[in-house]
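Is this the right way to post structure tokens for a design question? Let me know if I should format differently. Anyway, here goes:
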């Protein structure tokens, strides 16, 4: 299969957004995919690899998915490359299954397990599974960040299972350890924030005219930091190496292509698979598209039906006589029904920092939304403007450390890791003015960058594609499966989904 050559130059394909924004609006209001790209002499093919429920597809427009490119080279001192943690057959993230295989095959000597951040603590011993338990069981990498000097809060450790939750920093400020999943290095031309906490969004990704240049700047700085930190570089990479990495990353698109039950995910009018992302979606996307808070720069009203990939499957008919085809059609209707749940099922949004404390929204105690209130970018599922949110995933599931009963009920559905817990004090309560507040967190999110109380636990919702190939989910790997994730949302946001709706929603998420 091929994709259009028109899109094989990233600078050009990022630029085409300007003249096709009208198409984007048309496609959205019709709820259908835009027309086929005009040329089809592409040179990039879809690579597909088996995963938990079928096959994951990957398209690379700017270079091979393995081999000599800078993304695959060891540019530091510990033998790691970008591909150590961002693997093509795992949707450019890394799955727990593969982490465990690599540990067994190399007895823990694979560079992935370098103690700097591939162990629970930097003192972790090579080959000792217990010292790498967070990576082995939950796919987590240690991220260590200094408490900002101007922090509005005080932070202390109340649960320190490994002994390195807070350590003295060289700059005088203590360093905090949080544990996060590698985000996919794919579908990057749709990002509005880089990293869970947005710390690599140095130049904003919120205006179309500056978007290509700023994305390039941000990803270049990110690559440099990744080489310094993860690969423990002794000397700086060359400008050519950095630009090779960024150029490669910007051309990689991934999505599920085949489902064991539903078959080809782009059959009978559906738009699953990475080609649609590489061709049509890159042409349609602009920062703020379909913004759920009403600030779409094209002036389009928010359409909660942000996902329209499987709309044509809503009424695929059972064909008489052929049992196999009937089963497949039923599976396709289930995927389409799950997409409908994602677009329309009511979500009771409360106690979400970034929404319920947002004066622009009138600081509503509770309001009814949908999955797409937060996952509003059409057919990619992140937020089209930067909007870091606290949905509760970074709160502590330890007994009595969470005061919101809905968040506690949601967390009880997850098999989260045993990570450090921090006590935060000195912040005003965002949901009831004038009240000082102390609370517990396992990951301060954006507050660890800005030092602001209002940024606590806030992080981005990632692009929701290629999910089946890269369990577990959420920044801290707390959802071992999509079933757990759906049960979390059901309780956390009082959705009262039926078993059928949950089943359909999981089928849909698995097909992304
Ligand atoms: C040891 C594992 C590891 C290695 C090696 C690694 N990364 Fe990552 N990468 C991560 C983790 C973990 C995150 C998420 C961190 C966070 O959100 O705080 C991430 C996030 C990213 C993101 C952000 C994606 C997004 O949606 O915001 C990009 C881009 C990225 N990495 C590129 C690279 C590049 C380029 C290299 C090689 C120079 C590299 N990574 C090497 C673990 C790794
Ligand atoms: C109030 C905002 C909000 C709503 C509503 C919401 N999400 Fe999310 N979603 C987020 C945020 C923020 C994250 C990142 C959380 C984290 O990593 O800890 C996320 C993460 C996810 C992920 C994990 C992605 C990954 O790569 O690990 C999936 C899947 C997901 N959401 C699906 C859904 C579904 C399905 C619904 C509706 C039932 C939904 N979301 C409703 C904000 C929201």
């Amino acid at each position: 299969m091929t994709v259009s050559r028109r899109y094989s130059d990233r600078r050009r394909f990022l630029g085409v957004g300007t003249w096709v924004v009208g198409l984007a609006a048309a496609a959205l209001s019709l709820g259908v995919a835009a027309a086929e790209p005009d040329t089809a002499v592409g040179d990039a093919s879809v690579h597909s690899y088996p995963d938990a429920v079928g096959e994951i597809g990957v398209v690379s427009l700017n270079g091979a998915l393995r081999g000599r490119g800078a993304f695959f080279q060891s540019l530091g001192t510990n033998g790691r490359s970008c591909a150590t943690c961002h693997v093509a057959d795992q949707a450019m993230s890394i799955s727990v299954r593969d982490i465990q295989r690599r540990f067994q095959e190399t007895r823990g000597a694979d560079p992935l397990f370098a103690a700097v951040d591939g162990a629970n603590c930097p003192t972790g011993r090579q080959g000792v599974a217990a010292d790498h338990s967070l990576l082995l069981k939950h796919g987590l990498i240690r991220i260590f960040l200094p408490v900002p000097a101007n922090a509005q809060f005080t932070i202390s450790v109340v649960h320190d299972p490994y002994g390195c939750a807070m350590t003295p920093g060289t700059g005088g400020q203590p360093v905090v350890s949080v544990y996060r999943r590698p985000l996919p290095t794919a579908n990057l031309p749709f990002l509005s924030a880089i990293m869970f906490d947005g710390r690599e969004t140095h130049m904003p990704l919120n205006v179309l005219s500056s978007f290509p240049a700023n994305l390039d700047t941000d990803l270049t700085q990110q690559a440099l930091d990744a080489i310094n930190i993860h690969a423990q570089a002794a000397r700086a990479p060359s400008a050519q190496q950095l630009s090779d990495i960024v150029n490669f990353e910007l051309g990689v698109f991934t999505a599920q292509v085949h489902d064991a039950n539903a078959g080809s995910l782009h059959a009978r009018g559906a738009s699953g698979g990475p080609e649609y992302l590489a061709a049509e979606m890159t042409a349609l996307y602009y920062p703020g598209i379909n913004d759920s808070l009403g600030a779409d720069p094209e002036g389009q009203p928010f359409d909660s039906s942000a996902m329209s990939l499987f709309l044509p499957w809503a009424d695929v008919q059972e064909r008489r006589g052929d049992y196999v085809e009937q089963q497949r059609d039923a599976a396709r209707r289930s995927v389409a029904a799950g997409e409908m749940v994602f677009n329309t099922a009511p979500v009771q949004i409360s106690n979400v920092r970034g929404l319920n404390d947002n004066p622009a929204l009138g600081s509503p105690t509770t309001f009814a939304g949908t999955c797409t209130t937060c996952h509003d970018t059409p057919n990619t599922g992140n937020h089209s403007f930067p909007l870091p949110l606290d949905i509760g995933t970074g709160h502590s599931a330890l007994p009595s450390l969470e005061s919101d009963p809905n968040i506690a009920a949601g967390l009880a559905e997850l098999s989260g890791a045993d990570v450090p817990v921090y006590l935060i004090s000195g912040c005003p309560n965002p949901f009831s003015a004038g009240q000082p507040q102390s609370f517990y967190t396992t990951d301060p999110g954006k507050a660890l960058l800005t030092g602001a109380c209002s940024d606590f636990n806030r992080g981005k919702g990632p692009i929701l594609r290629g999910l089946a190939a890269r369990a577990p989910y959420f920044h801290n790997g707390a959802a071992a499966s999509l079933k757990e994730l759906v049960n979390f949302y059901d309780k956390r946001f009082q959705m009262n989904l039926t078993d059928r709706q949950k089943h359909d929603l999981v089928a849909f998420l698995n097909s992304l």
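Format looks fine. Someone answered above. Worth noting: Residues 342, 347, 349, 352, 355, 369, 371, 373-375, 389, 391, 393, 459, 461-462, 464, 467, 473-475, 485, 489, 505, 509 surround heme C (ligand 2) (CB under 6 Å). The first strand starts at residue 46 and ends at 51.
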